[in-house]
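Q: Predict the assembly, please.
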Amino acid sequence: MAGLVRRHGMWVAAFAVMLVLPWIFQTGFAITMLNQIGVLIVFSLAYNMLLGQGGMLSFGHALYFGIAGYFTAHFLNGVGEDWLPYFPVTLLPIFGGLIGLFFGIGIGFVSTRRAGTVFAMISLGFAEMATALTLILVVFFNGEEGIQTDRMVGPEPLGITFGPDIHVYYLISFWCLVATAAMYVLTRTPFGRMSNAVRDNPERVEFVGYSTHRIRWLAFALSSFFAGLAGALHALNFEHVGFETIGLEQSGLALFMVWIGGARNFVGPILGAILITYLNSNLSDITDAWYLYLGILFMVIVMFTQGGLSGLVFMHEPIWKTDYRLFGRMMAPYALGIGSTIIAAIGVIGMFEMIYFLSTRVTEETIAVLYWMEVDAASALPWIACAAITAPGVAACRRTYPPMANSYNEAIAAVKGRMAP
Amino acid sequence: MNIKAFLAGLTLAIVGGLASMPAATADSIRVGVIEPLSGRVAAVGRDALNSFQFAAELVNSRGGVLGGKKIEVIGLDNAMKAEKTTEQLKKAVDMGLSYIIQGVGSNHALNIIKFVGKHNKRNPGKEILFLNHSAVTTAFTNELCSFWHFRFDANVDMKVAALVTQINRDPSIKKLYMLNQNYAYGKSFQAAARRLLAKRAPQVKVVGDELIVPFGKVQDFTPFIAKIKASGADTILTGNWGADMIRFVKGAVGSGLDAKFYTIYGGLTSSVGGYGTDGKKVNLKQVTEMHQNHPRLPKELVDYSAGYMAKYKDTFYADRQRWLILMLAAAIDKAGTADPIPVARALEGMSFPGPMGAVQMRASDHQMQMPLVVSTLTDKAPDPIFYKGKNFGVAFKTDGVAERKDTSLSTTCKMKRPN
Amino acid sequence: MEVLVFSIFNGLLYGMLLFMLASGLTLIFSLMGVLNFAHASFFMLGAYFAYQISGFIGFWPGLVFAPLIVGVIGAAVERYGLRPVHKFGHVAELLFTFGLAFVIEEVVQMIWGKVPVPYDIPETMNVAAFTWRGLDYSAYRLFMLGASVAIFLALFVFIAKTRTGLIIQAALTHPNIVSSLGHDVGKIFMWTFGFGCALAGVAGVIGGNVLGTEPSMAITLGPIVFVVIVIGGLGSLWGALIAALFIGIMDNLSISYDLSLYPVLALFGVEREVEGIMQDLVNLTTAGLAPVLPYLFLVLMLILRPRGLFGTRDV
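A: Predicted assembly structure:
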């Protein structure tokens, strides 16, 4: 019971934070970023209903996000131009969700008969078809220019016009919270559990009398509903839907968010959406190599962990819950391991930055700004310096990782020891 | 437990909001350039940014504007994505910028036009002007025209008008084949070409008129080239650009198709680089406001190009980017203030000595009126194209100039002006 | 009739190029069960290496060395990247190669820049071998055709008839037995992957100068290669050949016989200059749809027959 209260307390806390955030950051840029984070939290959670919970890797889930965005934009324009009856803007995300659901039911039926590679390839096929169709069906999609819209339609109760971004912020926050809660509840239902079972052992699920196809289909359709809801929010946020919202790149973005944040627990996609949107908005102004770092981060996570960043955090949950003092003995090895990783990364990033600088520079200028210092990228010195940081950093990583893993294993062993009667 | 991580994430977002708080300086006039500075098309955006910075340096070296204020050009990266364009617009508003320059990608330009329209309506006194240097969709100065938008480039219809004018001058052209990309730009090219060919060059027979799926989706152009060959066309009129242009040219040269290519964007530096040695074999024409081998270019422009070459090791080719900055500076001086509305009024009707003759910003639709030059890619031009210090060994040679009366077209713009 | 034969011939040329690209992928898949998303990226690397090498010492050395380098890189990727991921299952492998494709594109941009590079057809082969219906067919295109046929034959013989090929096939289905017979299965997988990547590299060297060498070439060609091997049947060399030819020929036919939906719509009384959503349908032609058709077939094939035309097992 106490646990239940605490969990509800968390939702209330999240709600409070959402209310307060825009009072802290009032710049238009920050609000836009927060809005985008809200939209992408919903989208990546929807994506994770497939990947993390259902075991279906999709390269085309942005299709439902984007198509719902297009329908929402047309709907808004219809209301604005009076050939459609009035519909409250506040409820438009439900409309978007239904569009997503509609397409999800249709396409889901044919694509969820199998999971794994077949499913991934079908999703890729649909994604490529849809991308091409956005350019061919010009009246509906309007090619690369996409559909522009105006969210200020209809009556304005309480002065809520949805003109200023802050109004949209609260709209998105509200729907983000509702959708997150709904998806969380779904994971706790028998359906959510069956979805996990289909992911882990489809043969056995068939054996006990369930249809794996039906469960996947249902998961797919529900996921498409939430993707569509996110798409409608996207359309409201930017008042524009473009062909890039439908394509492989947008699906890949969700995949990156989910996998980097962690597909194996519920908060992973939220963490991923926040982290990557934030970095995407801010880091890309600082370094050209940002996409390279994103790709490398993704590959490292695929290679070394199955739970993403949140998995790394939750790995320590039993220790925390048993006795936080067990962390005491882990401090030193962790600090050493993380410290040497940072040192190695500084050296490697320095070299990447210089290569990028030399290959994209526009003048004969060879003075690059690296770590707030001016260095001559054409001379040997900064390269030697970077190598001199990288080499010992990598060597230190090799030395410090085993003790780090050991200290973790010991702590877990201690936890198990205490749990044993 | 799960909310803990969530809160940690929100804290991150908080830091983000703080980190993006801009600092303002008072004694300069800041101009934001929203272009792709990262991602696949970053080269195009970076070249444009250089060009504006170089022009601003010229203005500043002559003493700036309003008796000593400098023009500061700030690059804002949109990574060629619609969302990032909006983000950067918000950032520009946060920074208090009054002037936004953009041109790569008509979809982004349209975004900016819509954004600026809404912003200026909702925030009187904090208006923003959009100075468009390359987005060519004709509608921007027709039905979508806006007081806040100025186009310094010729639009698609004007460029097609110049091409058709030149086609009409060549009596050897009898049969013409049109191949365009199936999206907004390609279709407006197609529509303008159909209309203007019928009116200005009725003797030319259009033997083919085709749309292809754009953006590099067509890998193999052989079947199209076979159709062109079968139609007996001696001339191709195409709006293709990027991979669609490069593969088209490579395919045509590879199959020995001996037709003239009349293009808008066949001469983009990146495309000429992509043709390789096929660039020497293809008979390709482009339409631009200038090219460096044109005889009798104004002395000022020749010096400017030489300075640009010395600094960036690139051939200077987009003169519209130079006159955009110089005209903005002149308008600020003429208005006596950097406030956007008086500056906009000063820009209306302003003339500038362009490379082929005077150019003028038409007040009725904010479309620059200009002569355009049609030129042919050849390895016999005196001054070859350089890009990033690399000599392409080819360059353009003038075929003919379409005067302002040839390229000037009527507008449907009904502009709403602020009081 | 002549148009038909002519289109089929042009489709054959294009299809064989697709086959050359797909052969390495189908080899890797049939032997290792790994669907390599980054395959087209190795194709791109082959083109860029060939461009670099041919700038120094000519096309022919490039044809030898570029695939070798690509193959070594591929083997290293398998050994140090893919193998640790293998224990997490096929989805993780697919994710790994997806990330790899992303990283390779960024690295290519980092080294060679974002604009296309001028990688040219060797001048000696850029002469017309014959002319048909007014189109020149250069010696180089015939060379491409010959090279892809040679690759097909060599692969066929290698896998089905040689001892190494048999060991490799056995290693996929019965890795434990093969390793207890004294073969190093890990090494077999590593070199198979490297060899498959090298084949993509060969395709890059030969096709890069025809299609244009630029950083986005991998992402535009990658999905098409999947279509080829999925339609053909994963792991089937014959299937890949037939599917590649099918796509090449279909592409050419749909452009040559530019059929429109309009006559059908006209039966229902639809006007030529109709407004609104019908306008898109009136304007639909097979030429405009040509790039979409392969994906339509991909989806249909996976729904109706997931093992593809000649596949022996499901994807």
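Confidence is low (pLDDT under 50) at residues 1-25 of chain B. Chain B is about 40% helix and 20% strand.
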